[in-house]
Amino acid sequence: MPPASAEWRFTQSDLELLVPQRDVSSPEVSIVVPAMNERITIGDFVRWCRHGLRDAGVEGEILIVDSSTDDTPHIALREGARVLRVPKRGLGRAYIDAIPHIRGKWVLMGDADCTYDFRNLKPFIEKFRQGYEYVMGSRFRGSIEVQAMPALHQYFGTPLTTGILNLLYATRFSDIHCGMRGITRDALERIELESEGWEYASEMVLKSVCLKLRTAEVPVTFLKDRDGRLSHLKRNGWFEPWKSGWRNLQTMFTHGADFFLLKPGIALAVFGLIASSALSRGPIRVGSITFSLFSMMFAITGTLVGLQCFCLGCIAQVLYGYSKSTLRKWQRLFHYDRMTVLSGALVILGILFGLPLVHRYLHDGYVLAGPLEPDGHMAVLGILLSVSGFLLFGNTLVLQAVLMRVRPRSYTAE
Question: Which of 12, 42, 137, 150 could form a disulfide with 180 if both were Cys (CB 3.0 to 4.6 A apart)?
């Protein structure tokens, strides 16, 4: 039976919402925080949140997304928080489950362990009122209490992964793993979170960039764990931070596949095509070095790999669906009629380039006697053109299929 101080509301078969008697009717901001077995800190955390809301002069609700086996939910409820009971499914999943129950137009996220000081919410509220859609907290621009963050995280893991994300997405974040962050409810829905574990944090950051959300950073205070409390990373063993870091990198690379494919593919294809074309008339001598058929084979390999990388990068951007203008650009480039004609022309031209070598082969009694220049070089160039035609046609079909089947992302950026 539920406590007498609350009423149960059933939302889905595996979710239950506890609402305190003195509930906020029209919150402007929702503090949404996952919790699991946080009985040591949850009472103080809810009180900190209420203090922070009063100090910021904003009406707000506190929504604890709970999967505890102890009395954490009942303590939170007694202190005036809403409690959404969910199965244990990961941090990212907790936020996904919470979205239908968020009532405020602004959302603040964090941890329920009192390591982030929720008594100071003013910087986030001020940024929201200035029109920012995504407000990242930064421990490195704020303060980190002694022994609050393991040295491995503070001086290696967090700076490294933050630097990788900044490199991939041309951003200037200082702390992508800061758990205290704010986002408008509208933007949270547009982000369409998919990660169910720790990696949700990186997914939110990179999608905020891809959707061109108006973003700001504010300093936050990071405090060490209280006596008697062991962080979830430590509870799961020494290898858990490494697993979390690997999953975060996987998320960044998966959602940023075009970074590794699009521009590198263009560069490799252009370089390979120039080299192949230059060698198509025969060997080239530079000082004591001679570039001949073997060099040309490497060049056409680079061209084909680059071309395929470029096509895969285009397909990845269509699958992401972040930008309507990007979708229209690739749709125009890979127009079926135009690309079919171009692909056919490349295949035919490639066959024509190879005919002189075939004629020689047949004329000489099915052997190739003497030097292969220039017929051999032209035949290799013909192979490049024909295979490029097949690649372009195949990728055009795939991209057209993706455009037909992929669900357009809501509120895509222009």
Answer: 137
Report which of 241, 130, 127 is spatially closest to residue 177, judged by C-alpha positions: 241
> What length is written for the chain?
414
Q: Where are the alpha helices (DSSP H) in 107-236?
A: 122-129, 151-152, 158-169, 185-191, 200-210, 232-235
List Cβ neighbours of 297 (8 Å cut-off, separation of 6 or more). 380
Token readout for 46 is: 């809810």
pLDDT tens-digit readout, 301-327: 999 999 999 999 999 999 888 878 888
Record the tokens describing residue 30, joined without a space: 């929702």
Is residue 138 helix, strand or coil? strand
Between CA 72 and CA 75 the distance in angstroms is 5
Q: Give pTM, 2 decimals.
A: 0.77
Q: What is the pLDDT of residues 99-121, one digit of tens each?
A: 999 999 999 999 999 999 999 99
Q: What letter does residue 101 receive in the DSSP assignment?
A: G
Q: Which CATH architecture has domain 6-255?
A: Alpha-Beta Complex (3.90)
Q: Where do the structural domains in the chain lie, given as residue ranges?
A: 6-255, 258-405
Helix axes 200-210, 158-169, angle to 10 degrees: 20
CB distance 197 to 99 below 8 Å: no
Tokens for 366, please give them.
Answer: 């099915």
